Here is the input.
Amino acid sequence: MRLIGKNFRAPQKDDVEGWRVAEMLLNAGFGYWGTWGTYPTRLKDVPSFIQKNRRKTAGEQILEQWQEKP
Here is the structure.
């Protein structure tokens, strides 16, 4: 059992892809608390969502700031 968030809406019982999407998001640390905006509903969209929204280390944040400067 796991606390997954108040905004979780269970897929239909036979929606295998929907359950797999939820599993992947939860395993990546994304709970359904509304913090992340719109969650993906298709498997093909999950990796890019995770990459875009994952927590970054302090070093990664500094590197991004340096790369953004002209």
DSSP finds three helices and no strands in the chain. The mean pLDDT is 88. Helices lie at 16-27, 46-53, 58-68. The radius of gyration is 15 Å.
